[in-house]
């Protein structure tokens, strides 16, 4: 399997509620071209920030277009955190660079 990249998708959907989001998740759970990792949701503003793993931005665009879910932006991202692990941080980055999935 080719290396997967991390992407953040921003969805701005004022008025969307958790029931609609969960219905979308059920559809997206069957997708094989990308893997959903996490969503951050501000219900008051209707904005979702979703972390995905996929081979390309184009793959994500195709997934969401086919299912009929709109998005405002897709950007490739890398995780960064304060150096809580000391020397282990570099080891983590090296492993993450060749991992197929989050957490390897």
Q: Which class best fits the helix and strand makeup?
A: alpha+beta
Strand content: 25-35%
Order of helices and strands: EHEEHEH
Tally of DSSP β-strands: 4
Largest sheet: 4 strands, antiparallel
Form type: globular
Radius of gyration: 15 Å
Low-confidence stretches: none
Which key terms come to mind for this protein?
single chain, alpha+beta, four-stranded antiparallel beta sheet, 4 strands, 32% helix, 28% strand, globular
Question: Which secondary structure elements does this structure contain, and how are they paired or packed?
Answer:
Layout: E1 5-12, H1 18-28, E2 34-42, E3 47-54, H2 57-67, E4 73-76, H3 88-98
Question: How would you characterize this protein structure?
Answer:
The protein has 104 residues and is α+β, with helices and mostly antiparallel strands. It has helices at 18-28, 57-67, 88-98, and strands at residues 5-12, 34-42, 47-54, 73-76. Helix content is 32%, strand content 28%. The chain has a four-stranded antiparallel β-sheet, with helices on one face. The chain starts with a strand and ends in a 6-residue tail after the last helix.
